[in-house]
Design brief:
This protein is α+β, with helices and mostly antiparallel strands and 132 residues long. Helix content is 34%, strand content 18%. The strands form 2 sheets. A 4-stranded mixed beta sheet has the order 1-4-3-2. It has a two-stranded antiparallel ribbon with strand order 5-6.
Length: 132
């Protein structure tokens, strides 16, 4: 799970998380929160900054936090924007999230043309090779 926030909200999010027992850490250029000060980053809550790139070589910046949709009481990005963000950064965990979306039928070959060519090609590689 990643939490998408606007950069200008990071300080207030740090305060709110600290009040609830979480510790802020920046590691390898990524912002995150941990329950224990010595916890592994594997168990962190990663923060993704809206309107910024995760990696310098990403094709585009992350989307803004708006608009949102609600499902099962959880606020999230619309599926197309969420998938596009995952296809943009395409880290291992993003590919795993995309494969999960493919497996449950949220994404399929009908989505290839909804994205810029590089993103459509990335999605096609996952749909065609789900066991990678």
């Amino acid at each position: 799970m990643d939490v998408l926030i606007r950069p200008e909200d990071l300080e207030s999010v740090k305060c709110a998380m600290a009040e609830n027992g979480y510790h802020y850490r920046k590691a390898a250029g990524l912002d995150m929160f941990l329950e224990g000060k010595n916890d592994s980053v594997r168990y962190s809550i990663p923060i993704v900054l809206a309107n910024q790139k995760i990696k310098q070589d990403d094709y585009e910046s992350n989307p803004d936090v708006e608009p949102t949709v609600y499902g099962d009481g959880i606020r999230t990005l619309p599926l197309e924007r969420l998938a596009r963000m995952k296809l943009n950064s395409f880290r291992l965990k993003d590919r795993i999230h995309l494969l999960d979306m493919i497996q449950v039928g949220l994404l399929d070959e009908g989505w290839f043309g909804k994205f810029p060519k590089p993103f459509g090609e990335r999605l096609k590689s996952l749909v065609d090779n789900p066991d990678q």
